């Protein structure tokens, strides 16, 4: 396999979301504009996560190579005039979402975590579309619906909410802090 030259390597192997993004963001802050960062990760979700983060933060996602169980992501740091990290403006707390659900409001809860994360605990009646599949599955959602996007910590859901808004969805809200702090009702697969 061809070796790609990177200026800095970051080891994020064995880490789950949001840690590869947190470490990448920190490494990018310390990197000079124009240089390339190689992020080594084992979390399959990091492919979609890092690509979406790079897009939202203004950095350039170059691509990912797979070597055995290790994913090597390549990102180029943009100059400061290219880099303005965006955040979705419409947010709601877990507690506010829980109230809406308890009042049986006509809303859609969209869970953008990976399928395995969703299987073991999710909000009842939530729809599962992992962030990495969202672009290809937009037709499963109605642009007029009130969509509340959730993930584990609010990072992937923020990126998904931005993507939905860019695609013409009108009522999109990011749920913070997400499933890591969700104390409301949950469904899951039967554990044996």
UniProtKB/TrEMBL annotation:
<protein>
    <recommendedName>
        <fullName>Rhodanese domain-containing protein</fullName>
    </recommendedName>
</protein>
<dbReference type="InterPro" id="IPR001763">
    <property type="entry name" value="Rhodanese-like_dom"/>
</dbReference>
<dbReference type="InterPro" id="IPR036868">
    <property type="entry name" value="TusA-like_sf"/>
</dbReference>
<dbReference type="Pfam" id="PF01206">
    <property type="entry name" value="TusA"/>
</dbReference>
<dbReference type="Pfam" id="PF00581">
    <property type="entry name" value="Rhodanese"/>
</dbReference>
<feature type="domain" description="Rhodanese">
    <location>
        <begin position="103"/>
        <end position="191"/>
    </location>
</feature>
<dbReference type="InterPro" id="IPR001455">
    <property type="entry name" value="TusA-like"/>
</dbReference>
<dbReference type="InterPro" id="IPR036873">
    <property type="entry name" value="Rhodanese-like_dom_sf"/>
</dbReference>
<dbReference type="InterPro" id="IPR050229">
    <property type="entry name" value="GlpE_sulfurtransferase"/>
</dbReference>
């Amino acid at each position: 396999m061809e070796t790609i030259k990177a200026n800095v390597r970051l080891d994020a192997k064995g880490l789950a979301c949001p840690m590869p993004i947190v470490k990448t963001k920190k490494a990018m802050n310390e990197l000079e504009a124009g240089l390339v960062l190689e992020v080594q990760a084992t979390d399959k979700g990091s492919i979609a996560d890092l690509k979406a983060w790079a897009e939202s933060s203004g950095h350039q996602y170059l691509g990912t190579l797979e070597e055995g169980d290790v994913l090597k992501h390549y990102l180029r740091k943009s100059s400061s005039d290219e880099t303005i990290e965006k955040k979705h403006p419409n947010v709601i707390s877990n507690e506010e979402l829980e109230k809406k659900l308890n009042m049986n409001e006509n809303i859609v809860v969209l869970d953008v975590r990976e399928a395995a994360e969703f299987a073991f605990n999710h909000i009842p009646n939530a729809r599962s579309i992992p962030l990495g599949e969202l672009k290809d599955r937009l037709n499963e959602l109605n642009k007029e619906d009130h969509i509340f996007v959730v993930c584990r910590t609010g990072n992937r859901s923020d990126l998904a909410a931005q993507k939905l808004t860019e695609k013409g969805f009108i009522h999109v809200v990011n749920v913070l802090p997400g499933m890591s702090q969700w104390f409301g009702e949950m469904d899951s697969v039967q554990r044996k």
